[in-house]
Amino acid sequence: MKHCAGQIKYLIAIKELTDSDEYVKCVSISRHLGVSRPSVSKMLRCLANSGLVYEDYCNSVVLTPEGEKTVEEIFANFNEVYTFFHKFLKLPAEEAHTQSILFITEFPKDTCERLKSIVKRTIKKRTS
Known about the structure:
The structure is a single chain. The chain has helices at 5-20, 26-33, 37-49, 65-88, 93-106, 109-127. The chain is an all-alpha fold. The N and C termini lie far apart (37 Å). The mean pLDDT is 90.
């Protein structure tokens, strides 16, 4: 299933916030992404309708099993793209993070896969 750039950004934010806090609230997503709370509510409704987060997101935002699977797929590309921007291009961590999200949301999945392969091959050569 293809997800729009906004959905991917929110799913990444939910994953990152979940990793650092037990409960993810709408306000924490709002702060993390620098968007309004109504925007968060609207996107969470969309994610709930897509089966990626549970309907009761007002108390705490929790990914469904389908949402967790989708996040795993997103981060499979994100991690290598981040490595490229941070370690290869020497961008500061925060800028590499921002550029990685932009890259995986704006470029075709095939391009992400190709970059991922190049990064993995290069890392393998460096460690051999």
